[in-house]
Amino acid sequence: MYDIGIDVGGTGITAGLVDDSCRIAATKSIVTDRSMTARGMSEMLVKLAGELMAENEVPSSRIRTIGVGVPGTANRRTGRIEYANNLPCCQGNVRQLLQGQTSKKIYFENDANAAAWGEYLSLGKKPDSFVMVTLGTGVGGGIIQDGKILRGINYAAGELGHMTIRYNGVPCNCGRKGCLEAYASGEALIGLAQKAMEKKKRSLLWDLCRENQGHMNGKLIFDAYRREDKTAVKVIVKYAEYLSEGLANIINLLQPEVLCIGGGISRSGDILMPLLQEMVRDKIYSRDSAENTRLVAAKLDNDAGIIGAAKLRLCK
């Protein structure tokens, strides 16, 4: 038997067949249409799930549930996406629309919560408290306590990217200023690199960018760091400083057993994690305690959101 997990992101959507051992048997991806309505998205998700089943010759009888991880506030009681600052066109009663098109039980959850649930399920010994920060188009967060996702009274808990790390700082698309997301998202990293490149016209970053048809991305910045480009090193260190402020705040507030860093940027954990571990250690209030939060890189990469969404039926 399989569950289908669908991870809805700001740039792409991926559906996966996930077996009872939490392994992904097959996936299918499409580009996110940011102009779609909630109804259009629900129709597209059902179509994507159907194509995934057909291409892998899996009949409907072998599908147990469909779980969807969505950006923004996913109200599990009403079934509505109430607020999605990175994909506002999808706000609406997505679960009801989905349920109207399939006989399978539909689960849906905030995408970062789903990713945190997927990473949590991958652990052998489950910690009592687990927090995940996802670094992608935005900065998301998921909090798990005693095997339950912490959702809050209105299902909007865990928006860790929208804590302020600098008063009256850079505007965030949520409407506030100085949010962690405005400083530590993938887009923010690219912005830091572009500003540094404008100041330093001779840099390996310029060469790598030209080789990539003029497009800058996080991978190029970390590649330049590995090649000891001074501009890239300054960018990554500054980015890590911003991110460490938010991580220290999370630890000071929650003192979780494990704080996991996921999302696309975590693929460069060999560079980022040592920087963060040192910076965070110097910032946390509990720095002299015998036992402290373990700061780790995610293991599942982009699979976390798919696995977590697929296995939402296991979540209390």
List keywords for this structure.
316 residues, 38% helix, five-stranded mixed sheet, alpha/beta, 10 helices, single chain, globular, 12 strands
Summarize the SSE layout with pairings.
Layout: E1 2-8, E2 12-19, E3 24-31, H1 38-55, E4 63-70, E5 73-75, E6 80-83, H2 94-99, E7 105-110, H3 111-122, E8 129-135, E9 139-145, E10 148-149, H4 180-184, H5 186-199, H6 204-211, H7 218-226, H8 230-254, E11 258-262, H9 269-283, E12 294-297, H10 303-310
Parallel strand pairs: 1-4, 4-7, 8-11, 11-12
Antiparallel strand pairs: 1-2, 2-3, 5-6, 8-9, 9-10
What structural class is derived from the secondary structure elements?
alpha/beta
Q: Treating each run of at least 4 consecutive H or I residues as one helix, how many helices?
A: 10
Largest sheet data: 5 strands, mixed
Kindly estimate the percentage of residues that lie in beta strands according to DSSP. 15-25%
Proportion of residues in helical segments: 25-40%
What's the N-to-C terminus distance? 21 Å
Overall geometry comes to globular
Q: Count all strands and give the number.
A: 12
Mean pLDDT, all residues: 92
Q: Return the string of H and E elements.
A: EEEHEEEHEHEEEHHHHHEHEH
Question: Stretches where pLDDT falls below 50 for ≥5 residues?
Answer: none
Radius of gyration: 20 Å
Task: Give the neighbour order of strands across the main sheet.
Answer: 3-2-1-4-7
